[in-house]
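Much of our argument rests on the idea that a fold can be written as discrete symbols. The amino acid sequence and the backbone structure tokens for this protein are reproduced below:

___
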Amino acid sequence: MLSETASARLATPITVKFDELRAREGYNPQKESDKFGPVWRGGEWHLRDITNYMTTAAFTLLRHAADNREQWLRRFYEIGKEAVRPRKNGELFGFIGADLCLRETLLQGGVEFEYLDNYVLDGKKQVSKRWVNQGRVMTSEMLIRMDQPYGSFAKALLERQHYPNLRDSSGNPIAPYDVTAHTLPLLYGEEVIPVSTPFEYRQLAIAQPDIPCPRMSGVMVNTTGQKPPFAIYKSHMPSMDEGWTRWWFNSAKMKNHLLFSSLEDKEVRKGHLRSTYKTIVFPDQAPRAILNGHRNGSMPSEYTGGLGQKGVKSLKEFVEQGGTLVFLNRASDFAIEQFKLPVRNVVGGLERTDFYVPGSILSIELDAMHPLAKGMPKESIAWVEDSPVFEVVQTENSSVGASAVKIVARYAANQDPLLSGWLLGGDRIKGKAALLEVSMGQGLIILFGFRPQYRAQSLATYPLLFNAITGKWWENAAGTSP
């Protein structure tokens, strides 16, 4: 059971009037229904109300399960029996894909798969792709069948999502509960083939598959013993994307490969950043939050104010002296505005009826000759959610010329960019830029119009971010590329 509860202001009580409650996600909180109830009449909402609400829901579920034990067990048995039944012609039989980055995720979810030796598909004999090291087969293509206990889970992860075009009575798109795409093969940069008919195959015996995910095989700069030259900006207004970015670089897979510092407003405003740092990354965050932070009086003074113009000046000096600033997703709008770059966000300010992409996977084309795209294929994906889309424009107020801007990635001009999820107004972004490099002084400003490290899942675009940070993502990587 998933339960989420309306928050207080951290631990500070809030007051909500009954007429301030708004309908959302298929229910009206002012009316009792099968989806909502009992109705709350408004008033003060405390931290204790949150914990009471959630413990009540949890114990209600346990009590219901205890009182209806037989029905719960019978239903679970029926679900399990349906999951493992043999599939018929025309039904999804399974997926064929490489055993590279997907294996670990599938295993964690209890998904079973088989390694293929050879097989007959559509009347043609196929020999499985294999990865060999010194004559030993490390792994091969795998078959993920649907007739297994967690087949539906595997299907949800592997297939592409086609989110419905849901509108309210005024024609406005109805926001999803979370996001609209979670297709792991696209996020991981791997191909899987759905198979709708049972087929003949022979299994390959592999005792212990041993091949690293190619998206994680790069060797990065280790600066043990000295202050890391790489920093992640950490606003006092919490950013979920900052937390994900910091979590990823602290994870076991990255430990001892890329050491970093958290950079707060006070240190930025102090200046002289170039003497300490080579690269600073700004995770996805609203420009106003970065610039202004918490208003004075709402927090202790040391946590208010944001970067301010003093911080902007310090960052500009950092770039001009040879530093690199990397801005992710909405943070790119901050850079465009504050550094007066010759770039325009072509979807900025548009109504949702004109352009809307609430967490989807889009296709991009890369300039494979550009250093930022080293180790990347010519076509890849972008995780797009409240994201800017760029156009190079020269104005009188631009701090640098348009010739200082290089387009590293763009959306295709002649095809629908949507791969999985929901996109309204896709024609508006055809041929527009998704990743830019801007030269300023001796340094660089890199603008991502997407989240290349989305929830530590978008492995397909990790090289772009790591190239932006260090320029050494594929150095000493055994000459392999994904």
Summary: The chain is about 25% helix and 20% strand.
